[in-house]
Amino acid sequence: MSRPEQSFRLPLPTAGPLEAPTEWKEMRGRCPVAAVELPSGDKATYLTRYHDVRTLLSDPRFTRPTAQDNAARIAPDGAGGPVANGDPSLIGAQTGETHMRQRRLLSKHLTAKRVTTLRPSMVAIADSLIDDMLEHGQPADLKAKIGFPLPVYVICDLLGVPVQDRDRFSHWSNAFLNVSRYSADEARASQAEFAQYMSELIVAKRARPSEDLLSALIKDNEADGDGLSEAQLVGVGMGLLVAGHETTTNMIGKMVAMLLAERTHWEQLLADPSLVRTAVDETLRFDPNSGFGLRRYLTDDVDLGGELVPSASTVFCSLSAANRDEQTFAEPDRMDLSRTPNPHLAFGAGPHSCLGQTLARAELQIVLEALLRRLPTLRLAQPVEELRRLDGLLVGGLQEVPVRW
Predict the structure, then answer these.
(1) Which residue has the higher pLDDT, 103 or 404?
(2) What cofactors does this protein use (predicted)?
């Protein structure tokens, strides 16, 4: 099957900050294996069907491109952060046994049991942040007051990173995920500062270990003669710190905005708080603004829906588009807070699925439960169409979420 000649440009335009691109439905029906142009000007392949996305992500042969692959670049002029550039020290960019070993090291410390033990402290943090927001009065930016600090406090406590440096983490995270917000020189300088900070922190923890995840990884490393290199430890530490707060920060803002945009959704949760768990997963599925999607580099030819995608292709798996596939989800463009089962792909699939998804779900559930309990009259402080999208980064979000109560 030959690929349609039409080419699309990423990121795709939308009619509003919480609207899905109209092109997704067209692509799934007419060109599910589409040619796209990236902000860098490079060309890639873009997948929008659920089955194709899940198939490719579940194939252990394929991973994020590394710096050694001649893959399509996301960011122009070399300005992209490590995720866009394929830094080989990052856990998501590893392949083979090195990747599996890193996942084993991390997964034994990021268990559901450990997340359960963290829940009481997360509930206390959420209530404290709401107290502070109430004290400062309305309107308030819910993303800045709750969405950002809660995941930062949690991941800093988990990793053993000083929370007082949170503003620096925010800047470094944005540079880490940069596409066009910063120049190449600014992005490189930020990454050098971030790496130096993490390297010094690891040295300090090696000298004085504690009961945190970084200390545990160092201990595991020293107990195994075939452990991670120092550069890999630094890269994993940086990746965990960014992944542990950036995506959840953005999702808290989007989740609340989506639920308040249609007031009946908020009222439904107030009437039946037991729906919080399914509601969180439904907002994850319904999210139209998760970024570019997961990038994969093909080391073999792959047949996707009857179309051959050749080896050495760079493929973007659009999780958000796949989560709107009518072949998998009934009424996919309607947010159903009781939807079950809900096999969405918001956390990816296969050997590179998100290791922190249990923690992320817990944080989203706790924030939503606390807001429903403490602020039942919560509402958006401005029309939905005036909300502003977060631009220039690999991840999608809203710049702020103004609310009243």
Answers:
(1) 404
(2) heme
> For the residues 275-282, what does the mean pLDDT come to?
98
Q: What is the DSSP letter of 229?
A: -
> Side-chain half-sphere of 94: how many Cα atoms within 13 Å?
20
Domain count, the chain: 1
Considering the domain boundaries, does residue 190 fall inside one? Answer: yes
Confirm if 40 and 13 have CB atoms less than 8 A apart. Answer: no
Q: Residue 113 is part of a domain; what is its CATH number? A: 1.10.630.10
Kindly state whether residue 2 falls inside one of the protein's structural domains: no
Q: Do residues 93 and 65 lie in contact, with contact meaning Cβ atoms separated by under 8 Å?
A: yes
Q: Is the peptide bond before 11 cis (omega within 30 degrees of 0)?
A: yes
Tell whether 1 is covered by a domain. no
- Are β-strands 140-141 and 402-404 bridged in parallel, bridged antiparallel, or unpaired? antiparallel
Q: Can you give the pTM of this predicted structure?
A: 0.93
d(CA 244, CA 75) in angstroms, rounded, equals 23
Secondary structure element (H or E) that encloses residue 359, with its range: helix 357-374
Q: Is the dihedral of CA 204, 210, 213, 218 positive or negative?
A: positive
- Domain span at residue 35 reads 7-404
Listed residue (16, 9, 17) closest to 396, CA to CA: 17
